[in-house]
Structure formats: C-alpha cells, structure tokens
Amino acid sequence: MPHLDQGNPALTIDFSEDDRAIVREFFLLSSKKTIYACNVAEDELAGAIENPDSHAQVARVRKFAAEHSGSEAVVISARIEEELSEMPVEEADEFLKEMGVTDSGVSALIRAVYHLLGLRTYLTTGVQETRAWTIIAGDKAPAAAGVIHSDFERGFIAAEVVHYEDLVAAGTKAAAKVAGKVRIEGKEYVVKDGDVVEFRFNV
C-alpha cells in the first residue's frame, strides 16, 4: 500500500468502515492511537508547558505528532516526576508552584491519554465521598447515570450539574446555586469533562 510504503501510519488512512474492519484483523501497530511525551530538562519545564512552540525540540515533536499520527505531545520532566513520587502531596504541590508549574506531567499525560481514547470523567459528591466516573465522549446524561447503576439510566428524570471549577470557586454547592452556576439538564444533555452531577431518577 503506497501510504504505508511512504512511512505513514495506518491510523492516518481514511478507511471505509468495511476496510477498517478488515485491517483491524491484521493488528497493525501503526493503526494504534499514539501520544508523545516530550522529556525536557527541569529548568525548561515551565517555559515548555506555557509556550511549547518556543522550545525547539518540543515544537518539532508536536508538529510530527499532529501531521503523522493525528495526535498530540505532552511535556514532562522525568527527573521532576521522580522527585515528586517521593514527596507527600502537600510538598509536591508546593514544589510545583515554586517551579511555576500548576500540575505534574504525569497528570497531564493521563488526561491526554483519556481524551485520545475518547474518554471523559464526571464527578458525584456527597457527605461521605466524592467519586469520579468514566464515560465515553458524547454520552448523554442518562447514559452517564447508567455508569453508576442501570436503574439510574432507566428511571432518569433530570441531572443537576455544576462544573468542578465553578464549584471549587464558589466553595459550596449552595453558594454555586446562588451564583447561578448550577443547572438542571434533561435527557439530551451531553455530560462534559469535569461536570459534578447529581441525578434525579424514579424507578
């Protein structure tokens, strides 16, 4: 196949559904979704995250990833990740702040992989616990509710939704309601990454 002979991955071929089913049987490595991790020096991390195209090597990898894999590149520093793994959470957060970084590279890599695989995360929270639930991108509220329990999907009435960042900024759900950040959504609502949801259902 000329496309593959030219060094292009199978992932970038625009197959018909029938052809895609046939090619799947060959388990081609280049048909797998790919993500690139750019390992940079400690003193380059903050700048490379803030402006990836200002870092020559990172910019090249990002360009290659976009053109050849339809993918993306995530910036990390393996040395910093090693140090973070040995620290308590509070110390790790302070260490990152001192470096001018808001999050670890591993966390960014996990989020990027989730999105590459078409996965999203929403949250439920209550007095006893807060939990994260994984759904498929594009899932509507009833399907998202079904991840918790099939009864939630079957008897779905509505979803009370506030985004995580809005909830944290408000401090409490009551304060978020006063600020107009809490919404009631119906069956056609597509659950977003980072939504905090309380489902209303009847079975």
Q: What is the element layout, followed by pairings?
A:
Blueprint (H helix, E strand, L loop, with lengths): L1 H4 L11 H8 L11 E4 L5 H6 L5 H13 L4 E4 L1 H8 L3 H10 L6 H12 L2 E7 L4 E7 L4 H8 L1 H5 L1 E8 H7 L2 H6 L4 E3 L9 E7 L2
Parallel strand pairs: 1-2
Antiparallel strand pairs: 3-4, 5-6, 5-7
Commentary on this structure:
The protein has helices at residues 2-5, 17-24, 45-50, 56-68, 78-85, 89-98, 105-116, 141-148, 150-154, 164-170, 173-178; strands at residues 36-39, 73-76, 119-125, 130-136, 156-163, 183-185, 195-201. With 203 residues, it is of the alpha+beta class. It folds into 2 domains: 33-116, Rossmann fold; 119-201, Ubiquitin-like (UB roll) (Roll), CATH 3.10.20. The radius of gyration is 21 Å and the shape is flat. It starts with a helix and ends with a strand. The mean pLDDT is 88.
User: What fraction of residues sit in β-strands?
Assistant: 15-25%
- The H-and-E topology, N to C, reads as HHEHHEHHHEEHHEHHEE
CATH fold annotation of the largest domain: Rossmann fold
Nearest-angstrom radius of gyration?
A: 21 Å
Largest sheet properties: 3 strands, antiparallel
**What is the CATH architecture term of the largest domain?**
3-Layer(aba) Sandwich
Number of strands: 7
Structural class: alpha+beta
The strands making up the biggest β-sheet line up spatially as 6-5-7
Number of domain units: 2
The CATH class of the largest domain is identified as: Alpha Beta
Task: Report the CATH superfamily of the largest domain.
Answer: P-loop containing nucleotide triphosphate hydrolases
Summed over residues and divided by their number, the pLDDT gives a mean of 88
| Regions with little confidence, pLDDT below 50 for 5+ residues | none
Give the % helix: 40-55%
Q: Cα distance, first to last residue? A: 55 Å
